[in-house]
């Protein structure tokens, strides 16, 4: 699994011009699922994301996690994180999991994050065309790949 995490002061997802989910201060997590992903990737990433010390302490130092400050998380599925641009100019998505594999893993990822965070996470709709609005705080943007744990 690959995730792009952005620290935000607010974020929302719209589908057909209607807000589906929104959060205030917290993390916007874009998640790409590949065929080789499994429950271990989900559990590891859920712990890593919720314990990641990227939130500011009272001195403005990134020293706290979303759990520490009671922040929120918005999760958006994004298969394009597995785009390969090695050949030609049209990205290939061959590593991205097919929907019948990716969607249950996406739902499980949201459940694991909810448990790790201790409250429900906000989410987009798997496979839908979504409009994402966000205010990146910092900016802070971090990429994590569950296949690279070193």
Offer a quick outline of the entry.
This protein is of the alpha/beta class. It contains 3 helices and 8 strands. The strands form 2 sheets. Strands 1, 2, 3, 6, 7 and 8 form a 6-stranded mixed beta sheet that branches.
Characterization of this structure:
This protein has 150 residues and is α/β, with parallel strands linked by helices. The protein has one domain (2-145): D-tyrosyl-trna(Tyr) Deacylase, Chain: A (3-Layer(bba) Sandwich), CATH 3.50.80.10. The protein is 24% helix and 37% strand. The protein has 3 helices and 8 strands; from the N terminus they run βββαββαβαββ. It has helices spanning 39-51, 66-69, 99-117, and strands at residues 2-15, 18-23, 26-32, 55-56, 62-64, 72-77, 122-123, 131-145. The strands form 2 sheets. Strands 1, 2, 3, 6, 7 and 8 form a 6-stranded mixed sheet that branches. The protein has a two-stranded antiparallel ribbon with strand order 4-5. α1 packs parallel to α3 (99-117). The mean pLDDT is 96.
């Amino acid at each position: 699994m690959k995730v792009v995490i952005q620290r935000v002061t607010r974020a929302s997802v719209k589908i057909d011009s209607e807000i589906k989910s929104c959060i205030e201060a917290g993390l916007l997590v874009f998640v790409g699922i590949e065929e080789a992903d499994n429950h271990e990737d989900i559990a590891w990433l859920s712990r890593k994301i919720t314990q990641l010390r990227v939130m500011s302490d009272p001195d403005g130092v990134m020293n706290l996690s979303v759990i520490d400050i009671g922040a929120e998380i918005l999760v958006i599925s994004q298969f394009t994180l597995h785009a390969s641009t090695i050949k030609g100019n049209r990205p290939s998505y061959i590593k991205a999991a097919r929907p019948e594999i990716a969607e249950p893993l996406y739902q499980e990822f949201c459940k694991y994050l909810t448990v790790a965070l201790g409250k429900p996470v906000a989410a987009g709709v798997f496979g839908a065309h979504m409009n994402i609005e966000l205010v990146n705080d910092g900016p802070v943007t971090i990429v994590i790949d569950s296949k690279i744990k070193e």
